[in-house]
Amino acid sequence: MIDIDGLHLSLEDIISVARQRTEVQLTLGAIERITQAHKSVAATARSRPVYGFSTGVGANRSVHLSSGSNHGLNLLRSHAADAGQLLDAPTVRAMLVIRLSQLAAAGSGINPQIPLALATMLNANALPELREFGGIGTSDLPALAGTALTLLGERPTLDGSIYSQGLKDWATEDALPFISSNALTIARSVLAYYDLKVINEQSVLTSALSFVALSGNPEPFSPAVAACLDSGAIAEGYRRIFDLVRNAGTPVRLQDPFALRTMAQLTGNVAEELAATEERLTRLVVSRHENPLVIGTVAEGNNDIAHHGLFLMLGLAKRLDTVRQILATNAATCLRRISFLCDPEYTGLHRFLAQDGFGQSGVMVIEYVAAAALSRLRSHAQPVSQQSVVLSLGVEDDASFASEAAALLVGSVDALRVMTACEMLCSVRALRQLGVDGEHFLSLETREFFSRALDLPEAMEDRDLRLDLEVAQRILGA
Question: Are residues 156 and 195 in the same domain?
């Protein structure tokens, strides 16, 4: 059971809820803060207009709402349209727990019965059916409006049933506070970040195998060189690569190609960007970004609201853009190492690591597969934060498209997994042909990784290598 207090929610907790279906509960402190914020916005609305509470939204912000209207339900119904492919259950669960955490931060002014109902819905695995297109990085309105309709029993759940344990009504003042969030975009970012962190670690280890198979020179990663760096994270990348490959063979070149010589620099750069991404996501999952923001309490006499634009996820969009760009840069060197592994000049083996020198193709097509995956990484590296759009009669005149940045990161991670599998297949094949065994590696970590990689099929003759790639991807996911 994970406590949701609105103060802290680890990314590991989100993964646990999303993929292991760990249950959650709101803490008493969170419920009390939500209750006080609900009272605060109600009191404030008696003395000044409150967007979405006593007015319409978007271009209708100047329209005053009459009391007792069905505006809240109408807002949810009218904003629930989405399109495209269905989102999977782990993504939806991640969104729900993140939205619950944000509501527990008590900046929305929502009725506490709604987050309580949301927690019950999540624990029951009664998930809303959500689709990929709808948000533009200024709040995931369709996804959250659709969630509200599922809570109300107006929309079927992901398994096609009607959730009957939810809410019977939705007050006008609770509609916008519920949907004013980028929880889906953040959820997709968290899941992609977590998967990337795992595959990146495997990619580093795979590059170490290639380095040894290519008789690389570890001198560029030495402590003396690392001491000259201007970044602690990149210096750590140098230390890491040096530890993985040191004393694992005799170098054959004074200076290696960049794909070997700059491995540590790229490793450190990726680690640096991942750390910055984790920091931002950790803040966002407990953020109070609902518009308007409820501040103060009635009890303290300082209750008020503040209209703002915190929902514009430009910071997250830029952060994810940067991650995708460094992944594409790093992946280009992965393809170069695969090319070197296919080249007798660098390995002393047959072309394409074939069984013999009589025209067999060996891993020739694996280089093509890796190049196709690299193309995906490069196309996904284009920054979405440069985009903008004007909507709602010109009132909403910008967008971050962080939602697209997150979706592209998911695709980039998938492509990186394929590229790493291609490099693993080639490096292990080369090491086997060179007669290298686990004892060759001084690093225990490299030795253990190589031992797992030896689960790849041993046969060297020309054959269908799809199964080998699938095995490699399973090893990388272990």
Answer: no
The last residue of one of the domains, among 161, 181, 201, is 181
Instruction: Tell me, yes or no, whether 9 and 64 share the same domain.
Output: yes
Q: Calculate Rg over the CA atoms of the chain.
A: 26
3-state secondary structure 106-173: CCCCCCCHHHHHHHHHHHCCCCECCEEECCCCCCCHHHHHHHHHHHCCCCCECCCCCCCCCCCCCCHH
203 & 344 share domain = yes
> Do 76 and 30 share a domain, yes or no?
yes
pLDDT digits (tens, 9 = 90+) for 120-168: 999 999 999 999 999 998 899 999 999 999 999 999 999 999 999 999 9
| Domain extent at residue 173 | 2-181
Domain ends where: 132, 148, 181? 181
- Give the whole-angstrom CA distance, residue 163 versus residue 224: 63
Tell me, what DSSP letter sits at residue 221?
A: G
Torsion-angle region of residue 353: left (phi > 0), alpha (psi -120 to 50) or beta?
Answer: left
> Which of 145, 121, 133, 118 lies closest to 87, judged by CA?
133
pLDDT digits (tens, 9 = 90+) for 450-475: 999 999 999 999 999 999 999 999 99
Q: Are strands 83-86 and 24-26 parallel, antiparallel or unpaired?
A: unpaired
Assigned token pair, 204: 């580093």
Q: Among residues 446, 430, 429, 447, which one has the least CA distance to residue 438?
A: 447
Check: CB of residue 352 under 8 Å from CB of residue 454: no
Number of independent structural domains in the chain: 2
Alpha-carbon distance of 245 to 262, in angstroms, equals 14
Whether residue 282 is found in the same domain as residue 366: yes
* Cβ atoms < 10 Å from Cβ of 227: 9
DSSP codes of every residue in 224-246? HHHTT-S-HHHHHHHHHHHHHHT
Q: CA of 369: how far to CAs of 70, 277, 366, 373, 408, in Å? A: 55, 29, 5, 6, 19
Mutual angle of helices 232-245 and 183-213, in 10-degree steps:
40
Banded model confidence at residue 62, pLDDT cuts 50, 70, 90: low
Taking the whole predicted model, whether its pTM rises above 0.70 is answered as yes
Q: Name the helix (H) or strand (E) containing 189.
A: helix 183-213
Q: Can you read off the two tokens belonging to residue 176?
A: 């916008």
If asked whether residues 102 and 87 sit together in one domain, one would say yes
**Statement to judge: residues 238 and 269 lie in one domain:** yes
